[in-house]
Amino acid sequence: MRKLAHGMGFRYRLHSASLPGKPDMVFPRLRKLIFVHGCFWHQHQSPKCGISRIPKSNRRYWIPKLRRNRERDIENLKALRALGWETLFVWECETGRSDRVARKLQHFLEHTAAKGKRPNSPKLPSREQSRRP
Ligand SMILES: [Zn+2]
Predict the structure, then answer these.
(1) Maximum CA extent, the chain
(2) Which of 28, 39, 42, 75: CA 20 to 30 A from 68?
């Protein structure tokens, strides 16, 4: 992961404790963050993931615990968005496939979401078109 980003020429810092969720990699100039998440602890929601399954025993313990982890992740993500950070999650089960991770990383770091424009902003109603004389 780190070698990949470095090889692409991106400058970053490691483990910023001052940001919600303590991201693994911080790209201050791009205002982007990368989290490398363990599939089990962060409950990777992918049918392809073979690691995130909740154990069969002690479910009364694991289910609420893992749910809290996930809720915390969502809260952190919201807080980071509000601060203007773009975030990428790299999952544990993906890290074995370095070509895929490299592409994901490159896409994330080279493409910036349009600023000042929200993709789901409500469109203005076009009532003015039917102007009466
Ligand atoms: Zn996974």
Answers:
(1) 74
(2) 28
